[in-house]
Specification:
- This protein has 2 domains: 130 residues, Aspartate Aminotransferase, domain 1, CATH 3.90.1150.10; 233 residues, Aspartate Aminotransferase, domain 2 (3-Layer(aba) Sandwich), CATH 3.40.640.
- 44% of the residues lie in helices and 16% in strands.
- The protein has 15 helices and 16 strands.
- Helix 7 packs parallel to helix 8, helix 13 runs parallel beside helix 15 and helix 14 crosses helix 15.
- Bound molecules: pyridoxal-5'-phosphate.
- The site of pyridoxal-5'-phosphate has 14 residues, from helix 5.
């Protein structure tokens, strides 16, 4: 038995490797930034085009200082879940700050947004209810829905006709929850939130948005996709991460209606049965929200560098998905071409990641780049120049 599983998994790994699909973890030996060093590449300064460091806060001095001060004041860990003896004042302070930033009634912290999404459906919905989910929603939403007993409906990405059909079919259910990512992470495209909210209102359904790829930099004061469309009061449940624009350490949250958050404190399993967030991370996250709220200059630079990259790639004749988000997916179709381009760029000290099946649909391979407010004009020029020569050198 023991050798059997070893053999099976070795076979699986060899299979992945033979198709060039093995995920290789690069070891970074510098702080996370737009310029990094990898262990494997020694002294080479790499231009990083693939972090979720949208506002460039991952190594911001104010966050580092806040985390240091947090360590000094509160110590290292909590060694407890929240309801035993793991609730520190700084957890409550961060929950309350997230609520005031996002303009919601209440917020509950989780170890990650994955945990938040994995825990909330089971706690809120049962067999009398229905959940209607966009086909491109994040894996954590898919897993969370699998764990609950509600009837499940799926609509094609941003397809309002299919959503309406599902709402009709679910009309006999007690509670109907429509769930969408605010921004779809593989496509860099926003959800049609006005359309979703409109349909949900007409059919008496609730709306949940996972705004992990928007909070901090989309909408006024970076308050996210609902704020961008002026729909904050129409969203019942908002989830998000502290692991991307807001400093990039770890942690997630559910924010929204008071009674929903109160119930999650009683029933969400990843909240009840997992250790509470490190206080120093909460201190740094508080500093990140203070910065993000006022960071119009960073958001302006992020938007300008995103426009520069999107325009440059389009001018070269590449097919780029989305319209204005700093996730910039450059479509290659063929997985091998995506890998070839990534290797070509790496040889020129530019780090990008190729994505192929099963992370994206078969035949829809791509290079997904992510722009940061910390990128400079000449960084983006370098990327465009490298893609220009890749076109002729690789014949793509
Ligand atoms: C849309 C979305 N939701 C949730 C998550 C998970 O966030 P976390 O890293 O906090 O678990 C991610 C991260 O990849 C994401 O892209």
């Amino acid at each position: 038995m023991r050798s059997q599983i070893g053999q099976r998994l070795r076979g699986n790994l060899d299979e992945l490797s033979s198709h060039n699909l093995l995920k290789v973890e690069q070891e970074i030996v510098s702080p996370q930034s737009t310029h990094i060093y990898l262990r494997a590449l020694g002294e080479r300064d790499l231009l990083n085009m693939c972090a979720n460091n949208y506002l460039g806060l991952s190594n911001h001095p104010a966050l580092v200082r806040a985390a240091h001060a947090g360590l000094e004041r509160h110590g290292f860990g909590m060694s407890s879940v929240r309801f035993i003896c793991g609730t520190h004042s700084v957890h409550r302070a961060l929950e309350s700050r997230l609520s005031s930033y996002l303009r919601t009634e209440d917020t509950i912290l989780f170890g990650s947004c994955f945990d938040a999404n994995a825990g909330l459906f089971e706690a809120l919905l049962d067999a009398d209810d229905a959940v209607i989910s966009d086909s491109l929603n994040h894996a954590s939403i898919i897993d969370g829905i699998r764990l609950c007993k509600a009837k499940r409906f799926r609509y094609a990405n941003n397809d309002m006709r299919q959503l309406e059909q599902a709402l009709r079919e679910a009309s006999n259910c007690r509670t109907v929850l429509v769930v969408t990512d605010g921004v779809f992470s593989m496509d860099g495209a926003a959800a049609n939130l006005p359309g979703i909210c409109d349909l949900a209102k007409r059919h008496g359904a609730l709306v949940m948005v996972d705004d992990s790829h928007a909070v901090g930099f989309v909408g006024p004061e970076g308050r996210g996709t609902p704020a961008r469309y002026g729909l904050e009061d129409r969203i019942d449940i908002l989830t998000g991460t502290l692991g991307k624009a807001l400093g990039g350490a770890s942690g997630g949250y559910v924010s929204g209606r008071g009674e929903i958050v109160s119930w999650l404190r009683q029933r969400a399993r990843p909240y009840l049965f997992s250790n509470s967030l490190m206080p120093a991370i909460c201190e740094a996250s508080l500093a990140a929200i203070d910065l993000a709220e006022k960071a119009d200059d960073l958001r302006q630079n992020l938007s300008a560098r995103t426009g520069q990259l999107r325009q440059g790639m389009t001018d070269l004749g590449f097919h780029v998905l989305g319209s204005d988000h700093p996730i910039v997916p450059v479509m290659t179709g063929d997985a091998a071409v995506a890998v070839q381009i990534a290797e070509y760029l790496c040889a020129r000290d530019i780090l990008v990641v190729p994505f192929s099946y099963p992370v994206v649909p078969d035949g829809a391979a791509r290079i997904r780049m992510q722009v940061s407010a910390a990128h400079r004009t000449d960084d983006i020029e370098r990327v465009i120049a490298a893609f220009r020569t890749a076109k002729t050198d690789l014949g793509v």
